[in-house]
Design a protein that fits this description.
151 residues, mainly alpha, 2 domains, 8 helices
Length: 151
């Protein structure tokens, strides 16, 4: 028959060198486990919930930008906001041309007729758009200044 752990412990370490007995150690360990069981369970469930809720993927627009631009160009856009402003202004101009050219209705009769229709309207639409932008840039914003100059 093999001796139990407390008996082995008593044989290896003299009683004058022990702070607590093996029975006290086992009792304190059980008490520690009972007191910390709820906290550990809560921490584990919080970690699992965090793993489920946290999504490490970037937003869809960033994934699409990375796909279209590549990583180097995406980082350049993030570091220099002037490029973002230029892209936004370009988007607005293209959207205005899209609406003015009525691209959707031009392609209703087929690709070739749509391309011919848009190609004949393209230069006049750009000239019209730049004329409108320049007219809006020349008109004063404050009506009181305009009245003072006329009197």
């Amino acid at each position: 028959m093999q001796p139990t752990v407390p008996v082995l412990f008593a044989l290896l370490v003299p009683a004058s060198r022990t702070l607590i007995t093996p029975v006290q150690c086992k009792s304190l360990w059980s008490q520690f486990q009972k007191e910390t069981e709820y906290t550990v369970t809560q921490a584990i469930s919080a970690q699992e919930a965090n793993k489920k809720s946290s999504n490490w993927l970037p937003p869809p627009w960033a994934i699409m930008a990375l796909f279209v631009l590549g990583f180097n160009e995406f980082v350049t856009l993030l570091r220099n906001p002037l490029y973002l402003i230029l892209i936004f202004v370009g988007y607005l101009l293209l959207k205005a041309l899209w609406v003015q050219l009525d691209v959707a209705s031009a392609f209703r009769n087929g690709f070739l007729s749509g391309m011919l229709s848009i190609s004949t309207k393209f230069i006049p639409a750009i000239l019209n758009l730049t004329r409108k932008l320049s007219e809006q840039g020349q008109t004063p914003n404050n009506p009181q200044i305009n009245h003072q100059h006329s009197s």
